[in-house]
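DM between two lab members

TW: hey, do you still have the ATP-dependent Clp protease proteolytic subunit entry open?
JB: yeah, one sec
JB: this one, 196 aa:
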Amino acid sequence: MTQPDTTAAQSNAINYPLLARPHIQLYGTVDEQMYAKFLDGLAAAPTDGPLVVSITTLGGDPEMARAMGDSIRLLREYTGREALFLGKVAVYSAGATFMSAFPADKRFLTKNSRLMIHERLMNSTVQLSGPLNTLSPVLNAKLNEIEDSIRIQDEGFADLVRGTQVTLDELKQRAPHNWYIEASQARDLGLVLDII
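TW: and the structure you got?
JB:
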């Protein structure tokens, strides 16, 4: 009697026992509430050993994602503590921004998860009203906001691809069209270390 081939369905989870019970588990929209939950989880987590953070999100506020990421960076730089990222099911938009705070070799995805990376979005109306000499500063202020947002976006993109096989130029070409990346492809590109 032949045994069924189960290698395709096997998980690499056994190789990473720390990921079984993340210290901080985030899910839902990346917003101020998630940031508060993240800070509470960080305060309650053990103070030694690797810190495991998991997230499932369809996106949200990129600034809240950057703030959570900065806490991870500061923890790593001030204490030398290892922090591991575990993306579950969906790591879209601001979730990928948060993921970029972790080195590529400290990132993991669960089986059948997806990343989605896109450019920052802006919805804005510029109201021009008043003497002509007062209108140019309004337009310049909006242009400055856009240019600074692009710089922030590019900094995050550079962090996301650092240590991977994806170039910054490639990411910038794909991002305007919502780049969806399956877990196995993310691993093959080096965006994550492995799949569990």
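TW: got it. The helical segments are 32-44, 62-79, 94-99, 132-161, 168-174, 183-188. The first strand starts at residue 24 and ends at 27.
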